[in-house]
Amino acid sequence: MSDQDTPPPHNDPTPPQDSPPPVESAPASGGGIPLEAPSAAGVGLGQGKLPESEEKTMGMLVHVLGAVTAFVGPLIIWLIKKEESPFINDQGKESLNFQITAAIAYVALGIISVVLGFIPVVGACLAMILYVALVVGVIVYCILGGMAANKGTPYRYPFALRLIS
After folding, report:
1. Can you give the residue range of the structural domain that contains 56?
2. What is the mean pLDDT of the segment spanning 21-27?
3. How many CB atoms lie within 10 A of CB 5?
4. Domain-embedded: residue 116
5. Which burial class, exposed, middle or buried, applies to 145 when counting CB atoms under 10 A from its CB (0-12, 13-18, 19+)?
6. How many domains, the chain?
7. Residue 96: Cβ-neighbour burial (10 angstroms; 0-12, 13-18, 19+)
8. When you count CB atoms within 10 A of the terminal residue's CB, does the N or C end of the chain come out lower?
9. Is there a domain that residue 119 lies in?
């Protein structure tokens, strides 16, 4: 290789400007229900009294039991284990918030189904499709949460009312 083939050295001290500037979030309005997911920074395995394998198992259970028992299973595990592990405390609150949101959605869907019931055939079919979509969505997100927690990664549901903080 000759000297003509080598590129000149890059001595520019400024970093490349390929990445976009950080986005600053607007301040939250006071008095409302927080909708943004809390930061998972600082929440990890091995910070509590429990071994990491038990933290992963309990973290998985709070999510997966939500698909089976609604908010009852996650509530019981969270109440029993929240003092022993910050990871279980975080994942328990996340699962409970999602299950409470799902319960509100089930009630709203029940009301919508009554209204749709007045439309012959089409209303009942539409209500059933919405109900199946809600059930499948809850099950899928609970399984995704359980899989992430079993890896030791804090999981955030894409939508949930943050009632328990």
Report:
1. 52-150
2. 50
3. 6
4. yes
5. buried
6. 1
7. buried
8. N
9. yes
